[in-house]
């Protein structure tokens, strides 16, 4: 994981780098560092902990760095070696003249390290990255050409890397290269940039080139040259980035998470635009390249995803099986990739990922592609590595999600699954037309209903305060909302660190009920429909064990007030689309509890938004 950035030009280099890093904090935030070429010397500054610590350090060094016109920076999510100052990047060669920043993992670092040590490299850290610094430095000593040294050294690496490299004997220059980790080059006037992701450079330029695997770029203030792995020049073909800097502002909200929760109605409208205007019309999903004949040829669907995206996939399974008569399996990508799966050209494999970079899901998708499956990708990043594997690409268009806890991207993924299921059902003619019309109508009405919910959060805030001292939390649901229970629990545990678990309500009596007592809140997700009465009975079982009772419901039944200590009401919706409605109060509950406890809502401990390691 981690984020990297590089800058060459006339601006205040440290400022460009730290600003860039702050927009890459979603990739990690346990330590950070920069290396600058100033007064003919490579100068390195690093700090453990949040990026602010590095900013504070740099503020005391203004005199030392004011002449810098080249620099590279890094924000870390530790894989090899604890998060401390020594293990923070940039890493340097013995002489300290060469400095590098790295995102990725080098799998053969142990063998390389042993070799390099024998040849005189002195290691300071426990990281895999430091081997790259020494390897390039040793090659440079032999051939005295930095670009060639990087090319020869990276050819010896196994694993994933995006790298920026500077050397004090090669002024005004950054070398950038990548394999299986993202890196783009931003093109400016008299200045150039390199970064793991668009937000780091968008304030300065909208013109960029995405490097391909094994390509190498040489950046100076007035030129960018790109080469392939055999050192042949490659034409620089810039593209315009469709990003607005405003997307990165909190827009007056205290946290990005709250802003992103509130954006959800617009995200839903945005997704539907161009696809569905009226329930009487078929849904338009031209991105899906599956016709009637191909659908007939499919005998199963496998969905691979992680975390929140996995929960969206669970709802997707329910909807597709309900409408399309195709069996659907949903599996955590990390499990899927290490077993023998029955996947072939008759399987549709759907990869779901907000970032499009999650390593486990990317591997799962690549494996299935190699077995001849049609690959459909649902992602918020149509420019990502996963998107490039797609035969059918469904972008969810949620806009950049900064908060580590996924909210609006989840709702957008759910919208994509509804659209996909309806689209497939319309091609296959596998569902009753009136039923499909009802669901389409509900989808069109949902944004407004959620808007209404978002204007009345007092009761959710009160509930959050009341239950914020709980050490444990149980969420129960049945049917299509089982995934909502899992997602509600995940939101709460990841940002408040309360031990929260989601169960299918019917499973409570098979073990978990033993934990219930008067200290434990049980939140029952009771959306009206097929299983409403069933879950009501399950809630009663909890009441009989003295649990603290919370309901989340679109029912207006006043009797619920007798059974529950707290009833969170939401506007009534059709059961089939109820996961979209039901998740919003749970996102808010998690948010307000974490906020009330004073937790770091947007950057919870130990996490990173883009999980690019297996
Ligand atoms: C939870 C969360 C994570 C991600 C997971 C997969 O709020 O954000 O569980 O859902 O790491 O990430 P993507 O969707 O980028 O593949």
Question: Share of helix among residues?
Answer: 25-40%
**Helix tally?**
19
Radius of gyration: 26 Å
Main sheet attributes: strand count, strand direction, barrel closure: 8 strands, antiparallel
Number of strands: 25
The pLDDT mean sits at 94
In this entry the ligands are: fructose -6-phosphate
In whole angstroms, the N-to-C terminal distance is 10 Å
Task: Give start-end ranges of low-pLDDT stretches.
Answer: none
Secondary structure category: alpha/beta
Q: Which strand order do you get reading across the main beta sheet? A: 3-2-4-1-10-9-11-15
Write down the overall geometry. Answer: globular
User: What portion of residues belong to β-strands?
Assistant: 15-25%
In short:
By secondary structure, the protein is an alpha/beta fold. Helices cover 36% and strands 21% of the residues. It is globular, with a radius of gyration of 26 Å.
Descriptive report:
The chain has 614 residues and is α/β, with parallel strands linked by helices. Helices cover 36% and strands 21% of the residues. The chain contains 19 helices and 25 strands. Strands 3-2-4-1-10-9-11-15 form an eight-stranded antiparallel β-sheet, with helices on one face. Helix 4 packs across helix 5 (129-143). The longest helix has 23 residues, at 433-455. The N and C termini lie close together (10 Å). The mean pLDDT is 94. Bound molecules: fructose -6-phosphate (F6R). Fructose -6-phosphate is lined by residues 306-309, 353-355, 358, 361, 405-406, 490, 494, 611. Residues 306-309, 353-355, 358, 361, 405-406, 490, 494, 611 line the site of fructose -6-phosphate.
């Amino acid at each position: 994981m981690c984020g990297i950035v590089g800058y060459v030009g006339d601006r205040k280099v440290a400022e460009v780098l730290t600003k860039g890093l702050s927009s890459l904090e979603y990739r990690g935030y346990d330590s950070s560092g920069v290396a600058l070429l100033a007064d003919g010397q490579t100068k390195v500054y690093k700090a453990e902990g949040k990026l602010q610590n590095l900013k504070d350090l740099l503020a005391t060094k203004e005199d030392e760095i004011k002449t810098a016109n080249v620099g590279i920076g890094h924000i870390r999510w530790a894989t090899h070696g604890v998060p401390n100052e020594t293990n923070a990047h940039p890493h340097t060669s013995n002489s300290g003249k060469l400095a590098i920043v790295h995102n990725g993992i080098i799998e053969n670092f142990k063998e390389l390290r042993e070799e390099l040590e024998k040849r005189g490299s002195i290691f300071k850290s426990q990281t895999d990255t430091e081997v790259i610094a020494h390897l390039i430095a040793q090659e440079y000593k032999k051939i005295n050409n930095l670009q060639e040294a990087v090319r020869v050294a990276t050819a010896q690496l196994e694993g994933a890397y995006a790298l920026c490299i500077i050397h004090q004997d090669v002024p005004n220059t950054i070398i950038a290269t990548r394999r299986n980790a993202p890196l783009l080059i931003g093109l400016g006037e008299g200045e150039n940039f390199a970064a793991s992701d668009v937000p780091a450079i968008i304030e300065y330029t909208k013109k960029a080139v995405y490097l391909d695997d094994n390509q190498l770029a040489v950046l100076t203030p007035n030129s960018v040259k790109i080469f392939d792995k055999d050192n042949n020049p490659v034409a620089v073909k810039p593209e315009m980035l469709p990003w607005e800097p405003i997307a990165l502002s909190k827009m007056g909200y205290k946290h990005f998470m709250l802003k992103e929760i509130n954006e959800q109605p617009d995200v839903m409208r945005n997704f539907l635009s161009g696809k569905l205007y009226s329930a009487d019309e078929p849904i338009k999903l031209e991105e899906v390249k599956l016709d009637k004949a191909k659908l007939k040829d499919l005998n199963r669907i496998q969905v691979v995803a992680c975390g929140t995206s996995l929960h969206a996939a669970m709802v997707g399974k329910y909807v597709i099986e309900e409408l399309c008569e195709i069996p659907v399996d949903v599996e955590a990508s990390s499990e899927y990739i290490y077993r023998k799966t029955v996947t072939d050209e008759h399987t549709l494999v759907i990869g779901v990922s907000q970032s499009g970079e999650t390593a486990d899901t990317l591997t799962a998708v690549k494996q299935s592609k190699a077995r001849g499956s049609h690959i459909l990708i649902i992602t918020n990043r149509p420019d990502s590595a996963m998107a490039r594997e797609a035969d059918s690409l469904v972008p969810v268009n949620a806009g950049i999600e900064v908060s580590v806890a996924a909210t609006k991207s989840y709702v957008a993924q759910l919208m994509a699954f509804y659209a996909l299921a309806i689209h497939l059902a319309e091609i296959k003619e596998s569902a009753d037309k009136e039923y499909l019309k009802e669901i389409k109508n509900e989808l069109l009405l949902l944004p407004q209903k959620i808007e209404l919910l978002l204007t009345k959060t007092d009761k959710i805030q009160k509930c959050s305060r009341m239950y914020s001292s709980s050490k444990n939390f149980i969420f129960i649901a049945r049917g299509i909302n089982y995934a909502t229970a899992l997602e509600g629990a995940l939101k709460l545990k990841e940002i408040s660190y309360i031990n929260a678990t989601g169960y299918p309500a019917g499973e409570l009596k098979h073990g978990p009920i033993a934990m219930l007592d008067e200290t434990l809140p049980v939140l029952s997700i009771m959306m009206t429909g097929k299983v409403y009465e069933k879950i009501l009975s399950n809630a009663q079982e909890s009441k009989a064990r003295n649990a603290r009772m919370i309901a989340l419901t679109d029912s207006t039944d006043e009797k619920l007030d007798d059974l529950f200590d707290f009833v969170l009401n939401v506007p009534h919706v059709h059961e089939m689309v109820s996961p979209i409605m039901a998740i919003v109060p749970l996102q808010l509950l998690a948010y307000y509890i974490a906020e009330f406890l004073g937790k770091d809502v947007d950057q919870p401990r130990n996490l990173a938004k883009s999980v690019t390691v297996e």
